[in-house]
Amino acid sequence: MAINEKVLEELLNQYPAKVKRNRKKHIIIKDADLARQEIEANTRTIPGIITNRHCAFAGCKGVVLGPIKDMVHIVHGPIGCAYYTWGTRRNKAKSEDPTQNFINYCVSTDMQESDIVFGGEKKLARMIDEVVEIFKPNAISVSATCPVGLIGDDLQAVTKAAQQKHGISITAYNCEGYKGVSQSAGHHIANNVWMDQIVGQGDMEEPPSKYTINILGEYNIGGDSWEVERILKEIGYTVLSVMTGDGSYEALKNSHVAELNLVQCHRSINYIAEMFETKYGTPWLKVNFIGIQSTIDSLRNMALYFGDQDLINKTEEVIARELARVEPVIDQYKKICQGKTAFCFVGGSRSHHYQGLFKELGVETVLAGYEFGHRDDYEGREIIPEIKLDADTKNIPDLHVTPDERRFRLKISPERMEELKKKIPLSDYKGMNIEMKDGSIIVDDLNHFETEEFIKLLKPDIFASGIKDKYAVQKMGIPSKQLHSYDYSGPYAGFNGAVKFAEDIAMAFASPTWNFITPPWKNEPLLEGTIAEGGCSAC
Ligand code: CFM
């Protein structure tokens, strides 16, 4: 059934009035006739609600920093935080120099009660010495967890002294978990430190080739970045640095010489993309390498940016060859997928990126949303000036950068830039909502209760989300596709990735397993209770 305002109201009526008022602002029914549909995002989850979000530390250390392979990432905090951000996100890496690949290590100061009472700075300094002695890395990162911020350990002082002592890059990240309403805050913190202390530290002054690019916001989950790089290299691009899938400190410090930055995940990396433009004059292009048409569009937009006929021809040649190879295979899977519907709820960018790929397989996305996206990820960057800065947002300082006197260089003339902006998403992102079909549901920070309610109403054929919610949904007899770790499959990017995705989705639909499931709540009575307004008797 389609959901209209009345049905939505009934769903929300199950909440206490205050919760209803809050959640209502986070849910919209897409209506293209309205000039503007505002959604509330990047605000605190109501305590007690089961959310899929993570903490700021997870966004900084786990998401953005973690994939950099030639840095040792020290977690200053209890071992649980270190373990939580280690080994679960499938950011793959292989190193040209095996002695400088630390991706498999979990390094932590393992703070104990006595460290909390007496301070952890000395322990951290000893740990850095030990890491240098054992691993001899070119760079180290130190990320703070909640207790570190609470007791006030001075990370900056410790890392500065250690940097002088050892003569290598040692950067500190004050990304205590409580710093933001979600992992999104951690992305911003990591972006700031890099721009301030890593990008531009290399001595490269000229790009190694005419078509030198950086790929920003691509984390090589399940090998995505390798597939993207395969295509780009074949066309003739030089990929200088990837932030941060299979990425390296050595490449990052020279990334200032690129002619163009590609932005795959806008949410996690737009801060540094903007700062690159101000400091070095490097424009950014919003790309999407998930889905065949999106990949083709992205490649064509890149070729248009450089404007070189040879490059344009080579781009078309590669597209034609790849299409001829993958289309017949995908057509087979399409027969199984055609006419199905999907929910697509992921972190801060994939809910948008995967809709095109679903569509190519004949699957319509009827509900989508972000765990922690901001309003611009939904509504497009043009609304950024309208976003009200609340206390939580102000917690993360904006790094103010200015043009680098020596290295700032306009990569293309302002006139050409303006002309290109009319044709391609140069330094711009239009958000997810614009591409969603009328009548579809857009939900920010979808919670467990709403997941079940929307499933009952819309009965999707597949639920694309994460590990926290997938099993409850599978017990409802609906196949679930993890779009964070890909359920140990992938890559899903580029041409080869689209084939792999089609295969996996078709397999999920074709499996008879779902009919054999009898969830526990079918036979056992559910707990029943009522929600009292105004809190419990204890408060
Ligand atoms: Fe960007 Fe990501 Fe995502 Fe993200 Fe993430 Fe991820 Fe994600 Mo999981 S950086 S916002 S913080 S695309 S880990 S690789 S899948 S929630 S949609």
Automatic annotation (TrEMBL):
Taxonomic superkingdom: Bacteria
Keyword field contains Aminoacyl-tRNA synthetase: no
Cofactor(s) needed for function: [8Fe-7S] cluster; [7Fe-Mo-9S-C-homocitryl] cluster
GO function terms (MF aspect): ATP binding; iron-sulfur cluster binding; metal ion binding; nitrogenase activity
Keywords for the protein's UniProt record, in alphabetical order: ATP-binding, Iron, Iron-sulfur, Metal-binding, Molybdenum, Nitrogen fixation, Nucleotide-binding, Oxidoreductase
Every Nitrogenase/oxidoreductase component domain range: 55-508
Database matches in Pfam families: Oxidored_nitro (PF00148)
GO cellular component: molybdenum-iron nitrogenase complex
UniProt cross-references to InterPro entries, sorted A to Z: Nase/OxRdtase_comp1, Nase_comp1_asu, Nase_comp1_CS, Nase_Mo-Fe_asu
Catalytic activity, as annotated: N2 + 8 reduced [2Fe-2S]-[ferredoxin] + 16 ATP + 16 H2O = H2 + 8 oxidized [2Fe-2S]-[ferredoxin] + 2 NH4(+) + 16 ADP + 16 phosphate + 6 H(+)
E.C. designation(s): 1.18.6.1
Summary of subunit composition and partner proteins: Tetramer of two alpha and two beta chains. Forms complex with the iron protein (nitrogenase component 2).
Function: This molybdenum-iron protein is part of the nitrogenase complex that catalyzes the key enzymatic reactions in nitrogen fixation.
PANTHER family: NITROGENASE MOLYBDENUM-IRON PROTEIN ALPHA CHAIN
Family note: Belongs to the NifD/NifK/NifE/NifN family.
Protein name as it appears in the record: Nitrogenase protein alpha chain
